[in-house]
Amino acid sequence: MKKSKEEEIQELIRKRVLEEYKKREEAKEIELQNEANIEALHDVTGLPKEEIQRIADQVRKEMQPEKSPPIVPDKPTMRRPRRRKKRRLMFIGLVVFAVYMFNRAPFFDEQSNKALPQLPITQPAQQLALPPADVPSVGLTKGFCSAPQPHKDYRHCDMERKVFKNADLTGSNFEGIDLNRAIFTNCNLTGVSFKGASLERAAFKNSLLVGNDFSGANLDRARFVNTHLTRVNFSQTKLERANFQNITLNDVQMRGTHLERANFRAASLNRVDFSNAELERSDFNHASLNHVVFTGANLKDVDLSKTQLNQVTR
Fold first, then answer.
1. pTM of the full predicted structure?
2. Is residue 114 part of a domain?
């Protein structure tokens, strides 16, 4: 029969007491058949009751099943927020926004409100005789809006955000149409009329602008990049914050034009008429002005520092 747990404990107690007895008395092995209690073991072995009690307690303690530690469910691991990645994305976004704003608006230092130097008066009551801007011939046939060609009429087209690249648009008519944010790259725009058109934030890059009529058009924040202007009419045009930096303007009319905060830094202006124009806070730093007319123009807070002035009329 299988021994019970208590019988196993009693058997082990008997063995331990005998072992202790053999050690002390060096006696022969005695078989104990009575119940292992303290009194019987004391009578047989002569060991003190306290010693027998200590051995019994030790055996019972060893025979007790070990309590397994309570199982604690694992806490769900919290994913650390990817702060570094978020910061990197925020930094990239700020850089992209800064580049975008720099390309859209001309550079102007708000703090540089320097006193306007006294301009030499060479022609007090006479405007420069500038040649009129070339205009396209009347009676042009309608062109395809999706495939611009020279000498066509595109007044029926909506060309907002249109991208023109390596296009020949000579003598075409874009009067009064929507060309906001349009981009002209490596285009021949000789004789093209943009009269009354909306060209806000438009960009002209490496293009040819000769004999163009922009009168009455809206070119706020327009950019002219490596695009030189010859015999161009900007009379009564809106050119606030327009960018003419590092380009050449020859025989250009800007009479009554709104040019607040326009950027002419390092530009070369030859025979340009700014009569009655609004030039408040425009920037001509390091520009070269030859035969330029400012009669009746608003020159409040204009920056002419380090500007070369030759035959300038005020």
1. 0.57
2. no
